[in-house]
Amino acid sequence: MRSLFTEESVMGVSEESGRWESRIPYRRFFLFVLLIGLLLLFWGCAGTSTGTASKPFRTEHVVIVVIDGPRYSETWATTPGLIPFMSGTLKGRGAFFADFQNDAYTYTNSGHVAITTGVNQEIDNYGDELPANPSYFQQWLKATGKPATAAWLVMSKDKLHILANTQDSTWHNQFQPSVNCGVNGPGTGYRADSLTIVEATRILSQHKPNLMLINLMEPDGYAHAGNSAYYLRSISRSDTYVKQLWDYLNKSSFYKNKTTLLITNDHGRHLDGVDGGWMEHGDDCEGCRRISLLAIGPDFKKRTTVAAKHTLIDIPATISPLIGIKLEKGEGQVIREIFTKKALKQLDAGVKTVQ
Ligand SMILES: [Zn+2]
Ligand SMILES: [Zn+2]
Fold first, then answer.
1. Is 61-353 CATH 3.40.50.720?
2. How far does the centroid of ligand 1 lie from the alpha carbon of residue 323, in Å?
3. Helix (H) or strand (E) holding 215
4. pTM score, whole prediction
5. Which of 146, 248, 303, 311 has the smallest CB count inside 10 Å?
6. pLDDT by residue (tens digit) across 277-319?
7. How far does the centroid of ligand 1 lie from the alpha carbon of residue 342, in Å?
8. How far is the CA of 45 from the centre of ligand 1 (A)?
């Protein structure tokens, strides 16, 4: 700016008579402003067409909590029961799904892979096989160019480190989120959920990530151990951990009113009388398939119950537009009915431009 005006003054004096000296600089200044305006307009349009620079939603962060393997009959079928916070306080702040399912492979790694990649995959359940497709974490990290510390997997089950990577050759070892799993990383065993929540809130405050996926394993772990008292207690504790997380998010100016929070499960457990009942899971019985989803966020309706059936692969499909990506190879559907009117308009406008 300084050099522009210096040049104008020199030209005004040397080339024109005195009456132009004050007018020419202003004309050029307005042309300059107009040019900048046009450039900004072009920049904005270009951003929209790439689909990643334009992010019209109020959501800036997405946190997903997966409570591993409680059965619907011990959670949402009998409220408030063991989950007074989620069924009492949280439910009215978002959308509750009355018919949410894992209708594919009802075990931990497969359920989580459906949530991160949008594809139901019959994957190894011991942590020895990577997902076939890239996750929304990888695709978002690539699209935004953000560092790995902007996206985190915080898992009680160490075997879930597999969610950070994929077998897909174009994405393998690329754009991986940060991982905090198990007692001390892959192969170190399961970590207590109380410690996982401590880690999750520490990471939220230390790194201010935009994306986080949390796994709470105790309902599944105590059920497999045949400890019914601890199985029930761990469901109740999960409700408390969700409250701790919710309280943290709402006290933080970085996250408050800008965070979409989803609480779901990877699978349920057998109905009583099916192959060991509540202690096991893994088939297509109604107990294994029926899970829950509570979706709360600034772009979602409040006090809404969704009656239509939805499944795990719809989760990444639904959050992808919110974080400005189009999920590669995802097979789920965007859950349109939970978007507010305003967000729905953005969704429809964005669908045409996101690549
Ligand atoms: Zn299990
Ligand atoms: Zn079953």
1. no
2. 31
3. strand 211-216
4. 0.84
5. 303
6. 999 999 999 999 999 999 999 999 999 999 999 999 999 999 9
7. 40
8. 48
For residue 267, report the distance from its CA to the centre of ligand 1, in Å.
8
Q: CA-CA distances (angstroms) from residue 27 to 7, 14, 31, 34, 176?
A: 14, 17, 6, 11, 52
Q: Which ligand is nearest to the CA of 269?
A: 2
Ligand sitting nearest the alpha carbon of 270: 2
Average pLDDT, the chain: 89
Q: What are the pLDDT digits (tens) for 53-100? A: 455 899 999 999 999 999 999 999 999 999 999 999 999 999 999 999
Q: How far apart are the first and last CA of the chain?
A: 38
- Residue 303 buriedness (CB in 10 A; 0-12 / 13-18 / 19+): exposed
Neighbours of ion ligand 1 (CB under 5 A): 220
Q: Rounded to the nearest whole angstrom, what is the distance from the C-alpha of residue 314 to the centroid of ligand 1? A: 22
Q: Could you give the percent of the chain with pLDDT greater than 70?
A: 84
Q: Ligand 2 centre from 120 Cα, in Å?
A: 17
| Nearest ligand to the C-alpha atom of residue 267 | 1
Output the CA 226–ligand 2 centroid distance in Å: 16
